[in-house]
Amino acid sequence: MKKHYQWGMCLLAGLLGWEGCVRADIPITITATIIEPVCSVTGTDGDSQVKVDFGNVQLQDINTTQAQQPLRMQVSCDGAAPAGKVLKMLVNPAAGGVMTVGGVEVLGTSMTGLGIRLTDTAGTVVSPGYWTAVTGVDTTVKPDRSEVLLQAMLVSETTSDLTADTFSASASVVMTYV
């Protein structure tokens, strides 16, 4: 009788929301993969390669805006910046490497002594090999594609050492939230 009384009390307690009579343990395993928004960079025409053609440049125009061309890219991110992070870009030099002109690191070219200085819309130098904040882009608004505009200027420490010839340079650009 006493046993029936205990079970009756547990049943009554269970109906009232008290779970002290019967317990069961079960292990729970929770897994997830945390991902950050991914950004892709293309030319403004959607092409995977951006070309900057300086055309014919007079030797005396090097280091001036006469030897400057826009470098337009399009960035598309699949989400807004995570808390505490901003959109940044990294210019990785390929052919030509890096050189220093006027104390600033710039893209090197195939022509000895000739470099390409990249600046953003605020005039801040975008040095190759360093993360630089992307200005003028809001990835939280639609459309989710924004244009990133840089200026590419031909620069040299000593233009008198340069000779008339063709040149080339190449780099890759990565944009992500850092």
TrEMBL record:
Domain Fimbrial-type adhesion residues, every copy: 28-177
InterPro entries: Adhesion_dom_fimbrial, Adhesion_dom_fimbrial_sf, Adhesion_dom_sf, Bact_Fimbrial_Adh_Pro
Any one of the GO CC terms: pilus
Domain of life: Bacteria
GO BP field: cell adhesion involved in single-species biofilm formation
One Pfam family linked to the record: Fimbrial
Name under which the protein is recorded: Fimbrial protein
Annotated organism of origin: Salmonella enterica (Salmonella choleraesuis)
